[in-house]
Amino acid sequence: MKNKPKVIITGAAGEVGFHLIPLLLDTYSIICIDKNKNNLGLLKKLFPGIHAVHADLAESGSWEKLFKDADCVVQLQAQISSPHFGPYQRNNIDSVKHVVEVCQRYQIKNLVHASSSVVISIAKDDYTRTKRMGEEFVKNSGVPYTILRPTLMYGCFDIKHLGYLISMFEKSPVFPMPGSGKYIRQPLYVEDFCRIIVSCMRMKPRNKIYNITGKEKIYLIDCLKIIFKEKHKHIAFVNIPLPIFKGLIGLYGLFNRKTRIVPDQLTALTAGDIFPVIAWDKIFHVKPTAYVAGVRKMLHSPYYKYQKEMKRGDI
User: Fold this and answer.
1) Rounded Cα gap, residues 18 and 81, in angstroms
2) pTM of full prediction above 0.70
3) Class of the 6-155+187-214+276-290 domain?
């Protein structure tokens, strides 16, 4: 272990972290930092070889000293949704800025920053704005960086995107669909993204930004149908006009403070973005996983059963 290069993974106890760590265990000494104590515990349970650190990256603490002599820092933390701006500020701006400052202090030579395709979206919601600001902190830091902008990801331990939608209606015979449901998605299998991160850690491209867009264009409703079909679950999709659906989300949010769907997300979903596709498979030597094949791998993974132990963080 002492001879292995050290990697710091911030926001490690999320979907990407759970898939990235198995790819690094044999090569790196891994330090995982996350403020979600429950999910961090699950991470340690599945991968006991890691050093798990419970900490809020928006605040100073002993976690900062762990960056000394790190070969690479992989920054994954992000606030995806919230009815309030505060969590976006704290998790997409403050924590990113703080991590960058620590990287500056310890002269980190390889920072891999997981951004999002939303930064080139036409959306104007809090998530999009704060992710753009986070990128600016990285680009202006002077720390050698690689910025990756993935599109909608799916895989085990997904409790924020398609996985969350599926879990909401797991026991329901109907699925309420905003509008027609024919909104183009370019889904990216999370393991493909993790292999790209590993390539960046090894190749160390200096101050580069890559749009990591899924190779297929699939309607949202078809993304969900494929998952339900693979789960052998028959479900009826009920199309609800967008204005009514948005009103229902707002009403639901008044009675459930922990709702993960906010009106801004619906606006972004129906914005009609189609993101540019680069030859990331050739750049990083990662073979793209077809959506149907990725869904099968996800649902039949030995880790899929542990997804129920995941808990959502602050909103």
Assistant:
1) 20
2) yes
3) alpha beta
